[in-house]
């Protein structure tokens, strides 16, 4: 039976250092390129997963999903009927994104081609690039969730945000901004937990 090194004894070996460095580099690159078109596909993937999380939460709480849209301006909306809103509303921030529907078909095709190229490199060279692309997308999802909460509730104060809607139905004294901070903190914990589990797996 394989013993799991939960205590991370002997950390960090070469693979673990590369993993930590990859997370750090991904974070820096994402922050530097945040407002450029280069990250648009990744942002829209995150938006899709965000809306998908709403839809899944709705279905899991016996509701009906009437529609889901992802907009090229990195916004999105999911129309639901029924279900438990206490679960549906926070599910979006704790989920993430997609990069387009039919009107973004060329962007979709470009992203698929990009992934195909990565796969070819993975299969026919010694450079295992696929795991770094997946890691980059994972970091992107975590950071986007935190940024989206900040953008909606602190910098722009969007009153139609998930957190504002949740605050309206929640009897506790927390406002939308407070719920956003709570959900953002949970998203950050998810990121930290993912890094920890990655180090455990590599140990």
Automatic annotation (TrEMBL):
<feature type="transmembrane region" description="Helical">
    <location>
        <begin position="132"/>
        <end position="150"/>
    </location>
</feature>
<dbReference type="Pfam" id="PF13398">
    <property type="entry name" value="Peptidase_M50B"/>
</dbReference>
<feature type="transmembrane region" description="Helical">
    <location>
        <begin position="18"/>
        <end position="37"/>
    </location>
</feature>
<keyword id="KW-0472">Membrane</keyword>
<dbReference type="InterPro" id="IPR049500">
    <property type="entry name" value="Peptidase_M50B-like"/>
</dbReference>
<keyword id="KW-1133">Transmembrane helix</keyword>
<feature type="transmembrane region" description="Helical">
    <location>
        <begin position="99"/>
        <end position="120"/>
    </location>
</feature>
<feature type="transmembrane region" description="Helical">
    <location>
        <begin position="181"/>
        <end position="202"/>
    </location>
</feature>
<protein>
    <submittedName>
        <fullName>Uncharacterized protein</fullName>
    </submittedName>
</protein>
<keyword id="KW-0812">Transmembrane</keyword>
């Amino acid at each position: 039976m394989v013993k799991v090194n939960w205590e991370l004894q002997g950390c960090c070996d070469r693979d673990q250092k590369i993993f930590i460095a990859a997370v750090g580099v991904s974070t820096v690159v994402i922050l530097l390129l945040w407002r450029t078109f280069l990250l648009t596909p990744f942002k829209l993937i995150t938006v899709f997963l965000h809306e998908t999380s709403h839809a899944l939460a709705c279905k899991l709480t016996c509701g009906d999903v009437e529609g889901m849209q992802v907009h090229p301006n990195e916004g999105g909306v999911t129309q639901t009927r029924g279900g438990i809103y206490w679960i549906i509303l926070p599910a979006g921030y704790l989920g993430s994104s997609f990069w387009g529907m039919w009107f973004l078909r060329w962007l979709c095709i470009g992203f698929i081609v990009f992934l195909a190229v990565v796969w070819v490199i993975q299969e026919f060279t010694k450079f295992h690039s696929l795991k770094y692309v997946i890691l980059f997308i994972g970091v992107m999802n975590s950071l986007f969730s935190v940024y989206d909460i900040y953008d909606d509730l602190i910098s722009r104060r969007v009153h139609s945000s998930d957190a504002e809607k949740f605050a309206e139905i929640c009897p506790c004294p927390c406002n939308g901004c407070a719920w956003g901070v709570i959900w953002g903190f949970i998203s950050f914990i998810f990121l930290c937990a993912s890094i920890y589990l990655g180090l455990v797996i590599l140990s």
